[in-house]
Amino acid sequence: MIEGKANELPDFQVFRTVIKYCLFIIIVPVLSFFVVKILLFDSLLRLEAVTSSVYSAVVAVVVLHVTLGLYIYRAYSETDKPPAKPVKKD
């Protein structure tokens, strides 16, 4: 039974990593849209509502691609490390 728990740990770590990246992929582009729209395009540059929304959407799409790229890079660069074997003492 203990061996079964040890085998579940990497699965849980993978699940945690996927959940973190899913939240990151969802939240960061949405936040970037509103932050850039409100702070940059509406306040500083004083663009019209439609123009600032379009530019903010472009920024959000770029941020989304960056976050997806980070997830893909992480997925491909992750190496499967064999579990450490116990050393036998003679």
Supply database-style keywords.
90 residues, mainly alpha, 0% strand
Report on the architecture of this protein:
There is one protein chain. The protein is an all-alpha fold and 90 residues long. It is built from two helices and no strands. The protein has helices at residues 2-44, 49-77. Helix 1 packs antiparallel against helix 2. It starts with a helix and ends in a 13-residue tail after the last helix. The mean pLDDT is 86.
Task: Compile the SSE list and pairings.
Elements: H1 2-44, H2 49-77
Number of helices: 2
Low-confidence stretches: none
Secondary-structure-derived class:
mainly alpha
Query: Radius of gyration, rounded?
Result: 22 Å
Order of helices and strands: HH
Tally of DSSP β-strands: 0
User: What fraction of the residues are assigned to beta strands by DSSP?
Assistant: under 5%
Cα end-to-end separation: 28 Å
The geometry reads as rod-shaped
Largest sheet, described in full?
none
Helix percentage range: over 70%
Short description:
With 90 residues, this protein is mostly helical.
